[in-house]
Amino acid sequence: MKPGNYDFVTRTQEYIAKMHPVFNKRAVFSDETENYRTPAEPEPGDMVTIRLRTLKNNVELVYFISGATRLQMEIESSRDGFDYYAVQVPVGTETIHYFFELQVDRLRCYYNQLGVTRDLQEYHSFALAPGFHTPEWAKGAVMYQIFVDRFYNGDKTNDVENHEYFYIGDHTVKVEDWDKPPAAMGVREFYGGDIQGIIDKLDYLQDLGVEVLYLNPIFVSPSNHKYDIQDYDYVDPHYGKIVEDEGDLLHEGDKDNTHATRYINRVTGLKNLEASNAIFAELVEELHRRGMKIILDGVFNHCGSFNKWLDRERIYEHEAGYEKGAYVDKDSPYHTFFKFNNEHAWPYNEFYDGWWGHDTLPKLNYEESEKLFGYIMHVAAKWVSPPYNVDGWRLDVAADLGHSQEYNHFFWREFRKTVKEANPNAVILAEHYGEPSTWLQGDQWDTVMNYDAFMEPISWFLTGMEKHSDEYRGDLLGNGQSFVDAMRYHMSSFMAPSLQCAMNELSNHDHSRFLTRTNHVVGRVAQLGSNAADQNVNFGIFRAAVVMQMTWVGAPAIYYGDEAGVCGFTDPDNRRTYPWGHENVELIEFHKEIIKIHKAFKVIKNGSTKALSCGHRFICYGRFNQEEQILVAVNSGGEKISLSIPVWEMGIARTGSTTMRQLILSNGDGYSIEAKVFDVVGGFLDLELPGYGAIVLLHAGDEV
Fold first, then answer.
1. 382-389: long-range contacts, CB 8 A cutoff, minimum separation 24
2. Residues spanned by the domain of 661
3. pTM score > 0.90 for this model?
4. Could you tell me if residue 355 is inside a domain?
5. Is residue 339 in some structural domain?
6. Least confident range of 81-90, 122-131, 469-478, 687-696
7. Residue 357 within a domain
């Protein structure tokens, strides 16, 4: 279902309203949170209580349906104008998919993750996988993604030098001007950010409210992005420590990396490698001391042409302690790690498979190499174990790994077993575009980078822009119904344990900065130049996006510098340096305030989520449990709008009156944390929302 489609849920609502106008379909609610399933993440052998809410005295019969099982549900309790039906279900070892049937007079309809429907939609059923747990610390955790080279240079002695080596058409460049935008082909440009720089800025990150760091790859690699890994066992000394530094740089015109002895000594010398791992271990120890976590980027689909197993640049060929690479020698112990297409081309066989045809990114050949499989499993366990104790993996292009889907799923099942055995509390988070459910059944990934059920719908709604800034859609800008439909549809691919820790990003290293998308400029830096990314941006819309990010279900992930006002088209322009010394201080303070709200209320971490109202230029949604109800309303347009919001759908009584307290209000000019009070009468709240406005309101019993 694409955003904006007139989907079956809308048709169903119209049909039911016509056939039975007394039946209140908007009162019907259930989900996989602890309020509607106890325990929420059951073990095999547990007895689980499953609940469904309806309007009081509005429904005659309710049934729980799972496969051939059809159980009548009974009213467990009635409160605030609702009936809560419940049934107890024994849990075995197999995943249970379930939905509900409701009967009202002659009307029979069903309820699943997409809502009330007259058609049986088993594909969008609720689900529970016995024994599937995601780490509690990851649910709703405030994450912060760091592209290490561009964050902060804490140790200038480990900087990459000009002409240190040759890579993809030219020599390396040491950038002297920290504020210079990246070049359009800047893969070999280095600004000097490193592990020491992160350590130096931990006070800043903790004060911001960050709970988890996610680092783009840090292992030995020739590029600044490091998705072309050279050695999985060591942190790159250019990020870590160089304690022995000798050898020569390349001369102008020399493209032969066997002459790059400075580089060879830096990245193959054991003292440098061990010192780099040691400073990384110091970083992790300090993070844990502060109560923070860290996730590393795992690039296991492909490696790099510099990799010691291949050694196309012959960096390791004559170095003591290293075996011959598969490019160098047919008898290399790593021969099976890669798929060669010409068995008669050695020595220096260049005919190997590259990921998407890139010879700098050789595809790893797991199906034909048990040794490779074992080595990567060793790597997977090593970094989440002492002395490093990393708290999880983010998996690059995870669905591409292997040569078949069958093997891909086998690999990730084994990867999960390996990682969870080494560190049961580690999270496994995959990069994935599209339908993820076959990997999220409790036996492979914990969760994903949430493109379909967060980044894309919120970008279309608030900016009308595709996430690369490659397209503008005026029909999706401010289309509240399209946003709600897309979110509801794509969230149905997740079980609750995965959804609650899904990485909810506005920006990252692969897409344009969200702030840039607010200017509606279509294009990339090579054609438009970097200045165009900064022009006519809308801070009100950006603040509204951050409010949504910090109040939607999942783990909000800030891309370094977004909080300081950094702009940029898609990569490499999105990889600009953090603007130390000229940050947008007001924007940082706004982030601090909204993060405080995110962390203050348990309901944001694991409460229910429901769209309350939507339309042209606005959406309103609730986060709620029995104790607290939070309302979020967003205006994507520049003119103020008046709304009457059915907050009763969050469980607030429809009779009498109560109040809700403002936690934060943002608009085109700034933000306010004034604790204004709003009246709720008959279950509705009337609200005037300013242009580019976003508001968060709290109802907690009788609190005002």
1. 382/233, 383/296, 384/419, 384/422, 384/423, 384/426, 385/422, 385/423, 387/281, 388/277, 388/280, 388/281, 388/284, 389/281, 389/284, 389/285, 389/288, 389/423
2. 607-699
3. yes
4. yes
5. yes
6. 122-131
7. yes
